[in-house]
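Side project, low priority. Logging it here so it doesn't get lost.
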Amino acid sequence: EVQLVESGGGLVQAGGSLRLSCAASGISIDDHAITWFRQAPGKEREGVSCIRNGDFTYIADSVEGRFTISRDKAKNSVYLQMNSLEPEDTAVYYCALERGGDYCSGYGLQDYWGQGTQVTVSS
């Protein structure tokens, strides 16, 4: 059974940092694309950052320069380092895996999802 488990969310003041983790089991992350999505109340789910084959990374304009994605193949995990957090970053953050690893696709094409972790940034 494939599982993705996010952790690391919480409450932080504006300007602070959090590091989200996505631990995979039942599948190796080596050959697949992993994307972090987020969904704020009343808004659509949006892609934040993705890492795929060759360690190619994608980062959304809204978080570029503040967020960094990385992965540890030995731990079968992907991380999202979030710095200079803003109240607008408040959302539930999800990691998702898309088989194949050659593309960082938009929402809807992923094969597996985690349960999400809440990030709340206070002003």
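Brief comment: The CA atoms of residues 72 and 86 lie 27 Å apart.
Revisit when time allows.
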